[in-house]
Amino acid sequence: MLAPADDLSKTKGLGVIVFDKIINSIYMYKVNPEKENKEIIRKYRNLLQVWKTEHSEKDQEMVRKAFNLAVEAHSDMRRRSGEPYVFHPIEVATIAAEDIGLGKTSIIAALLHDVVEDTDYTLQDIQNLFGDQIAKIIDGLTKIEGIIPQENVSIQAENFKKIIYTLSEDVRVIFIKLADRLHNMRTLGAMPREKQLKIASETIYLYAPLAHRLGLNAIKSELEDLSFRYSQPTIYKSLSDKVKSKKKEYNAFVKSFSHPITDVLKAEKIDFKIEPFQRTIYSLWDKMSREELSFDEVHDVLSIRIIINNQEPLNEKVECFKVYSAITDIYKPNLNKFKDWISMPRANGYKALHATVMSKQGKWVDIQIRTQRMDEIAEKGYAAYWKYKGTEGSENGLDKWLRRIRQILKDTNEGSALNFLDDFKLNLFADEIFVYTPKGELKTLPLNSTALDFAYAIHTDLGNRCIGAKVNHRLVQLNHKLRSGDQVEIITSLKQKPKNEWLGLVTTARAKSRIEDALKEQKKSHKDLGVQKLQKYLDQLNQEFTKANISKIQRKLNINGLIDLYYLIATDHIDFRKIRMVFQEGEKNSWLNYIKKPFTFNKSTQAEKGLEKNLKDTLKNKPELVFLDPEKRDLNYVLSTCCNPIPGDDVVSFALSGKPMEIHRVNCKKAVKRMSQFGNQIVKTKWKKNESIAFLSALKITSIDSIGFIHKITKIISLDFKLNIRSFHLESSGGIIDVVIMVYVHDNECLNQLIHSIRKVKGVQKVNRPERPKTFDNINIK
Q1: Do residues 214 and 348 lie in contact, with contact meaning Cβ atoms separated by under 8 Å?
Q2: Burial 597-630 (b: 16+ CB within 10 A, else e)
Q3: Residues known to be catalytic
Q4: DSSP category for residue 78
Q5: Averaged pLDDT for residues 376-388
Q6: 232, 290 Cβ separation under 8 angstroms
Q7: Partners of 740 in the beta sheet?
Q8: Which residues of 310-331 are buried (b: 16+ CB within 10 A; e: fewer)?
């Protein structure tokens, strides 16, 4: 154990180690206790240096006490990289203090966040030493113990659910969790590939959106980039190299573009600074994928940010528009891309003016205009509000967001953690829309909310009796999707009642839970009739009305609760014939199995068990890798139709209980979601090349219409490459052709060569492989 730290706050820190240097040295780590002790002290000094919130000597003593406890508790522990484990909590505390701007309580909790989970110290020990508040935060950060992995139970989702419940009481839990996740991502290079995929997918699916919703833009961007770096390293490196190659060109352009703006703003005596900022690699790839653009077609790789040093928050809007006016006197704006996020801030508290203007070089340039205060809030999110306590808007955004979390926790019916996760992600991570009541009252709803969602947002009775709505004075149906700026009037009827199909018409957790509650009440009214009918059916079958028999009926007919059972019987969805089949099937099975078992076996079941045993043996002998060979039948797997992987693609597999392995492309959205929920099912997979096997893939071509175009394309595919075409769909409009071709290829290399050849055809503008074409054939290999 290190000696207690004394007067370390007076020593200057050396800063944060560059991430790339950590990655390059991570596999060459050599244990050197003396050097490690010095590094621990250095990191602690750096933590004290970046701690900017107000603190007393007593506060420093408490932080020192937490530091010494962390060093002692983790003294015999090392990270996978070989480094002392205590490096991690110190770095997490540093991120919490420097990048988020948190204070004493959060720093102590960050230093101790793994002590209860990974050492012999208990939560009671922490409570005795540091008080109830810190113990409560650490409890929220400690993973749930004793969850036994089983089908459809996600340990990842259960732990995230626990964090969210604690977050609703103390928001610092999620701030520290995000700091913890960021440092884990920075050091992910030491992990095996399947762990990298699990953690990266979980990060991009859950934690990056959460950072965005909390307004932590810098952390959100870094989490996205690191996730992309580890999930798709080849694409990441390719884009990164392209951006670096354009660095000199970008710098020259920024200098030329900014010069006239600088002159005008100085003449107006505005105190400002201009900062060029570049799209992150992930953001660049996301835009290219969504809009099917090449790198050279993305105009806003580089943008300009103008930050005004304004000391009067009440005058911020005027100052920002003054700068906007000066810029548009020089460069012509694109009015369709102007966004006023000052008058109507984003849900995460973000404020700025966004404009797109045409440069003298004929390129569109995105510009962000904001004050110093807006800039700090944009980067550090709701945590930065605490610094501006007492000013206009302080803490309102955070309080509002926490109220929404508490409301969702209240509205969400008890169920699996996976359902909770979906509801939470849908309602709090989605973008928001702003709609108005007939009296002009503003309501905020998640993107894709319907008229029925709006009705339930106003009042439960209004939703239950809703038969339609008027949006901007035009009559619409219940499932009409609302847009920002809509004015909505709900039309009701006393005869209306919620229906089961309504669950598919709503987005918000509140609406879903209210509909489910109403349906339960309706079903409960049928209980007596359902009980009478079931009693009658059982009497006719000479069966007793017992709990065991009722459970048997539910199990055989796949019915979850008694309310549903009695309702279905009362409404004749379950009749005497179905009840009789339940008990006849049981009798038949009981005596047939008794006779057959000694002499026979089920061939298909035995085959499946053999395949499952073969897969288990393969994973046991070489757990880090499974090779996919289409010719061999010893492994049972299915190529997912959502992304249609082919040999050569970077793929990930999931070992499912009693089912074939699922093979997905790593960038498949469904795969990302599954990895974020069932990371323990990931199997590292590679293809075995086989030229004799063909796989279905898609090609999307955009071209100028010309005579003989189809003949040229089919000639390349059929004659030059000797490949078979499954389908050919063509649409022509205004002299432009859009073609989607389903073609059988051997592997990724073959497909890339085909794309390269088609690009050479005169008139062809774009050729790419769609992420998710409209139609795919399901390919099973057993």
Answers
A1: yes
A2: eeeeeeeeeeebeebbeebeebeeeeeeebebbb
A3: 117-118
A4: B
A5: 67
A6: no
A7: 700, 729
A8: beeeeebeebbeebbebbeeeb
Q: Which residues contact 673 (CB under 8 A, 6 or more apart)?
A: 201, 205
Beta pairing, strands 661-665 & 637-639: parallel
Helix (H, G, I), strand (E, B) or coil at 244: helix
Assess contact for 405 and 164: CB atoms under 8 A.
yes
Nearest Cα to Cα of residue 162 among 137, 182, 187: 137
Residue 432 CA to residue 437 CA, distance in Å, equals 16
Cβ pair 436, 443 in contact under 8 A: yes
332 SS3 class: coil
| CA end-to-end distance (rounded Å), the chain | 57
Query: Which pair of structure tokens corresponds to residue 244?
Result: 């670096």
State the amino acid at position 113 in one-letter form. Answer: H
406-428: pLDDT as tens digits: 766 666 555 556 666 666 666 66
695-704 and 764-768 beta bridge pairing: antiparallel
Question: Which residue, among 410, 402, 405, has the nearest Cα to 517 in the 3D structure?
Answer: 410
Checking DSSP bridges between strand 626-628 and strand 682-687, what pairing results, if any?
Answer: parallel
Asked if residue 628 lies in contact with residue 635, where contact means CB atoms within 8 angstroms, the answer is yes
CA triple 406-407-410, angle to 5 deg = 85
Angstrom distance (rounded) from CA 130 to CA 273: 44
Give kind and range of the element (H or E) at residue 18: none
Cβ atoms of residues 626 and 619 within 8 Å: yes
Cα separations in angstroms, 253 against 257, 296, 331, 360, 633: 6, 15, 15, 10, 58
| Degrees to nearest 5, angle at CA 460 with 459 and 461 | 95
Model confidence, pTM: 0.69
Backbone φ and ψ for 352, nearest 5 degrees, come out as 180, 165
Mind listing the pLDDT tens digit for each residue in 700-736?
A: 999 898 888 888 898 998 888 888 888 888 888 878 8
